[in-house]
Amino acid sequence: MTAEAAAAETEAPQKINADLEKKTAALAKQLKDVRENVHKVIIGQEQVVNLCLTAILSGGHFLIMGLPGLGKTKLVDTLGVVLGLDARRVQCTPDLMPADILGSEILSEKDGDKVFKFIHGPIFSQLLMADEINRASPRTQSALLQAMQEYQVSVGGTTYDLPRPFHVMATQNPLEQEGTYPLPEAQLDRFMLQVNIGYPTPEEERKMVLVTTGTHEDKADKVMSAEDVMEAQRIIRQLPVGQKVLDGILKLVQAGRPDQSPLDSVKKHVSWGPGPRAAQAFMLAARAKAILENRYSPSLDDVLALAPSVLRHRMELHFSARAEGRTVENIIAEMCEVLD
Description:
- By secondary structure, the protein is α/β, with parallel strands linked by helices.
- It folds into 2 domains: 18-214, P-loop containing nucleotide triphosphate hydrolases (Rossmann fold), CATH 3.40.50.300; 239-340, Magnesium chelatase subunit I, C-Terminal domain (Helicase, Ruva Protein, domain 3).
- Helices cover 48% and strands 16% of the residues.
- It contains 16 helices and 11 strands.
- It has helices at 3-11, 18-41, 46-57, 72-83, 98-102, 138-141, 143-150, 185-188, 202-212, 226-238, 243-255, 264-269, 276-292, 300-311, 319-323, 328-336, and strands at 61-65, 87-91, 103-110, 113-120, 127-131, 152-155, 158-161, 167-172, 191-196, 270-272, 316-317.
- A 5-stranded parallel sheet has the order 2-5-8-1-9. A two-stranded antiparallel ribbon has the order 3-4. A two-stranded antiparallel ribbon has the order 6-7.
- The longest helix is centred in the N-terminal third of the chain and has 24 residues, at 18-41.
- The two termini are 29 Å apart.
- 38% of the residues are buried.
């Protein structure tokens, strides 16, 4: 074999076997039905829906940034129905306590003896919506850290496993900053994607107003079950990724670190950059994106398309950079040019 042929074989993704190809084709068809049912309720916002599904199919959590009234709560309810997941909602406020999320122990009587009984909180669900998460105090925010990484919680010296699959969808309002607590970097890094919701287009808003103020409103149907979602997550982890795509992911992630980046703008303006979880997120999310588009393996274009959602919450700029009008999105765009 020549050196050129060996290099081409290394860069190309491995061919999937017939069984995996059959499962992938069936999953792609099922996911098409999922999106059609979600859009019975969620008008427009196709990219937002795709990103949220990408995070769930990748087994990750996602943070949604958007103004009030753009359908964030409706979206998580609809995803719960369509995917067959037990969805619950927690409204975060400054006085919310960890026990309000995790649950608490109460003293009860059993066979004449006084014993402590653990009452499960809303975190014991499969799709938890933490609405306006930055309004919760750091103490309450920390209650989610163990759950998001280890899929279990510890209360009163006892560890309890969470239902599977388990996903946290948190929302933040980018406008109201009075009485809020910024999320710590460790927690931000646990969100696979940050999804930004914008205003609907004029056509979408017209349809939304007509549909939601009439006498009939479409309802989403259940398409998958929790077991189906976990099987989809297993299939996605089996999809091959070419060496060229892997090298591109690593090159992009490292380009965002001030001490490793070849870009002067990153060295000058970025305070801290993405860690290894960013590369892991790219590997899983790119596969999920390929499946959603009925493809068997991801490409560098998938990586570039996912870059803002994977990186924007994993990077921080110096104050001087913000004073000069630089944004994280500007820096990410320059980083993506490294792969062109």
